[in-house]
Here is the input.
Amino acid sequence: MQEFLQAYSWINMRFLLNGLWITGIVSVISILLSFVLGSVLGIIRYMGVKYLSRIVGFLIDLIRNLPLLLIIFFTYFALPKIGIHLNVITSTIVAMTVFESAMLAEIVRSGIKAVPKGQLEGALSNGLNFYQALWYVLLPQAYKKMIPPIVSQFVSLIKDTSLATIIMLPEVTFRAQTIYAQQPKFIIPMFLMLAIMYFVLNFAISRLGGYIDRRMAS
Amino acid sequence: MSMIEFKDVEKYYGEFHALHDINLKVEKGETVVLLGPSGSGKSTLIRTVNGLESIEGGQLIVNNQDLANPKTDLNRLRKDVGMVFQHFNLYANKTILENIMLAPRLVLHRDETSNKKMAMELLDRVDLADQANKYPSQLSGGQQQRIAIARSLAMEPKALLFDEPTSALDPEMVNGVLKIMREIAQDSSMTMLVVTHEMGFAKQVADRVIFMADGKILEDAPTEQFFENPSEPRARQFLSQIVH
Here is the structure.
């Protein structure tokens, strides 16, 4: 009991919460960037543009089948070899964005495909061109259906930022490690606090996602 | 110049020969009904007219545009040729009013005031002005189909294609839709091509009846002649099964 109270001292907690803030910032920037990039890739794949859709499809499959950790290694250790030096935060954001864009591209593609075919035919027959049909009719319906999978993707992204401890991103897991490395008896309290922080953050996001989903459905 | 002209048109789905040597002319202002058993190619035929289905052989000229030519701008064609579907295909994410106003705004760049005015007039015409701010899913099938017709009319098309517009409706909803179609047919400048199983409508409104089976046009006759004295045995058989 004693070590719990010591472990959760204000100094330690502030140190952890600052880490959680970094986790949050990295996650939010990554999800926003990958939402845009993933949408573009998903739409290209949906459209079946000659060659381009094939290439995009191959890249998406490639990335989806690699461990995120390897992509983080690439951005942090391999890119400097070709003269691109990124700090840990930027490396993590780039790696996360690449990985999550591939995931989101598949969500977006299947989301658009799930809109009944008649919606596109109706729009085209009404005189809209393909891009107008996509923008005004297909995407709004597709994104509505995509809220649950996008939210769960966001939750995995937040959890996956902990992988960036390997390149010493000072996010919350890394900071917990720093604390118990100095004081080994804090190891269990730190794990417990990490679990609580991740759970509260992710559970709140899931709930918020569920709420938005229900609001949109009605 | 005819509004729609098929010359030796062929259409395949893989091995399946969906349209076989189709020759057909529809003149401006004419109302033509396509009849035939299911699977006879009626829907495929009507869907080639606005390019929803491609053709593999022959020539298809609609509103002076050549659909066999891959360079033809289908968008330009579809501005003038509207389509009404069996399952309405209203935009699920837009209100009724928005459904009608979207294409005129984006495609014809009609100004907002006259666009709204025209949409409300059309809603009035199909007797649904009080539903303007609802979403399609809140309306019955018959109401949705009347909106779909209003949406097509908002583009001020030269021709309208109807692909089994009443087949998905409850029986009590059918007449409301047919009444509007009858009114449109009375407008002498509108060309209408209608796939339907409504024999009463065909008898009353059609100038000509086309009878199809197995992807071929078997009979192309003035309406009265078709119903009184069809020359094709398949058509006679079809009528004896349907007309009670």
Observations:
- Residues 165 and 178 of chain B are 9 Å apart (CA to CA).
- Chain B has a mean pLDDT of 94.
- The radius of gyration of chain B is 18 Å.
